[in-house]
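Sharing a chain and its predicted structure for anyone who wants a worked example. Both blocks are below, sequence first, tokens second.
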Amino acid sequence: MHTIDYSIIGFYFVVLILLGWVLRKRASHGLDEYFLGGRKIPWWVLGVSGMASNLDMTGTMVIISFFYILGAKGFLIELRGGVCLAMAFFMVILGKWHSRAGVMTVAEWMEFRFGRGKQGELARLLSTLATVITTIGMVAYFFVGTGKFLSMFLPFSPQVCSLIMIAVALFYTTLSGIYGVAYTDLFQSLLIGFATVFISVKAFISVDYAAVQAMTPPGWTNVIPSWRMAMPSGYEIYNLLGLSVIFYFLKVFIEGFGGPQGYTAQRYFSVKSDRESGLLSMLWISLLSFRWPFIMAIALLGFTLGPQVTDPEMVLPMVLVHLIPTGIKGLMIAALIAAAMSTFDSTINAGASYLINDIYRKHITPRATEKQLVRASYIASIVIVILGIAIGLVTPTINAIWGWITMSLGAGMFIPLLVRWYWWRLNGYGFAMGTAVGIIGAILQKALFPSWPEWMAFLAVSFISLCGMMITTLLTEATPIEVLNNFYSKTRPFGFWHKIRQGFDQRVIFSIRKEARGDLLALAFAIPWHLALFLTPVHLVLHYWSRFFLFLSILAISSIGLYFFWYRNLDRDYLKE
């Protein structure tokens, strides 16, 4: 790289450090300010921040590798997590259910659902441990992918490159909490936006599509998968791609109806109303759509490099090295660093909130002052990072850890997280046991059967979790009725709540059912809207005009449906009708 490129990256780091220093006072007043911004951060800032948090550098490298190997079908593999399709469920239903609780973390929410007795405390503790384990795994994922990318451009080893990034992000995140996360993400989104538009336009204009088609396998531009694919070495677990896609959709529905976790849930706990919850989700999804033409564009440009590309996970840095001019290259790398930073800072801030709010304040120092809790949050962030780095040092590939986090480890928590909303009889003991055996099962699967396909790991771990949850729930007492009444009246969920509904006025029951019918109808438009929003620009970059107009038509029809069945109802209060 040229000195100009290094200067741009250095300037970017300085801006992040200064923002963290300036915002530190706003976050120092207490935990509510530090982790939720006092619920005063505008919804559109949270939406932009959420989008930036999903655009990590490491995940982008992985997804590009799938697009490089499979073409448009690579999109289907990332239904496992990268497409963020669960956001459609959060936009219409689960986001507002979270914001109605008035809590700080998903773990604290467990006492809202299961009470403050032993079962609520146990569920809260297991939820905390599960989230912290996932957070540590995400730090390891960040450590491996960031180093692999930056070592192509900086004169350091991958480990040193990752440590530089982590040091900067840890500095502004620990000082300024959610304020630093949200407002640095806002700045970083400008860089990300520039990168996505520049690369997409460059590929659209400059790529020789006839030459690319001669180099790509048949069906490379087709998003419809074959049941069986001949995948290259290292990607054999996707040979049965059709079967994998079925389970990815299953995973999306479980995750979507189970609700957001980690830093995603933190945004919904930070908003003021159902309306803001829906609007931040819509903005979040809409901005995420810029990622997909960028990914397809990089994959196309990668083919123009011919045999220089030997590792699919290195297509992104290879394109930047060989095809991007000086100055623009520095901006592009800064944008990708911004994507990585945005994911890292959100993950760390959310993970620390669980350690401090749900373990330290709850069980260790319940009389600690707000300033003491904020200082303890600094230490919690550092501890999570150190553990994540240790795991990252022994992780072989980016995709190995991402697949385990999204499919195997996620499966260990998905079933209890799903059932908690829809079945009144699930108690805190059942939730805790289902989560515990699920996580243990995921860890044992990784240690004993690391070569299992993701769908097989997902099924096995989910079944273990389901058995542990059901057996424990049915052998222990139900959650106190007054706790369930409070939860049902505030959250207004649908599902198997017949025993609880008996104590409510019929007009209330009618309004809850009316809201549920409207939400499910809106969801039927939200899912195709989400998919078409992402796939339309992908096929535009590909010059695949028939598919472009097909997805554009789906996008238009689903947008009209969302307007009439969702957007116009955002201000509606069914209980007052």
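Comments welcome. The longest helix spans residues 158-206.
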